[in-house]
Design brief:
With 247 residues, the chain is of the alpha+beta class. It is built from four helices and twelve strands. 13% of the residues lie in helices and 27% in strands. Strand 7 and strand 8 (161-169) form a beta hairpin.
Amino acid sequence: MKYISTLTGTFLLAVIFAVSCSQDTMSGLESSNQSNLAGNPSSNSTDLHMEATYDIKIENLTPATVAGASQPLSPPVIASHSPDFRIFHIGAYASDELRNVAEDAINGPLVSLLQNSDDVYNMTTGSGPILPGSNDSFSLKAKRGYHKISFVSMLVNTNDAFTGMDKVTLPEKGSKTYYLRSYDAGTEKNTELTSDIPGPCCGNVQVRVPTHERIQFHSGILGIGDLDPAIYDWDDPVAKVTITRMN
């Protein structure tokens, strides 16, 4: 049986409002007893004979410069799934569902895809942005055969930057922690112009200069447009994720 749990308010208007009212390759680096690239976990696969519940804590590590600045993370879309499924993969082209998240924090198409996939066991979405220096926690279910986790979340003051996890093995017991890098979806030119960016810096949703490039690591804000790197740039890692098995 597939479990679907979604929360409302995952679109960018909620991100902008919430911020303005408040002042296989590498998904990241696991920091536990052994060090693994998060997108390339160890060969010891999870053996979940029964349904397991996990607490997923996502912390935004981008600098809290000024209110609405740096890089709030859009409400993440998180899924447990089979080893045959993935939301993104560095070196591949982004799907249209990923493009919507990475460019405009529009989760709907990806949520619909996950809800209708036989490879997905459980999914959840956030109800609001994760601001720099803050965190949010989510509950996710998994079982044997659906023991991988993936998620994506936009860095909203960018053209098409995102972070996430790509097909990472859930822990059989205890906790694992990962530090995640930022990615360029390759679907929009990095103009760094306020006219092309949807976040609280700019407010321009679904305005884009399209490109067709492969997903790669992001270079950050370079100062080639309107955005001041001193306010909007970041250093990797951009997020810390702690996954804890609860039963």
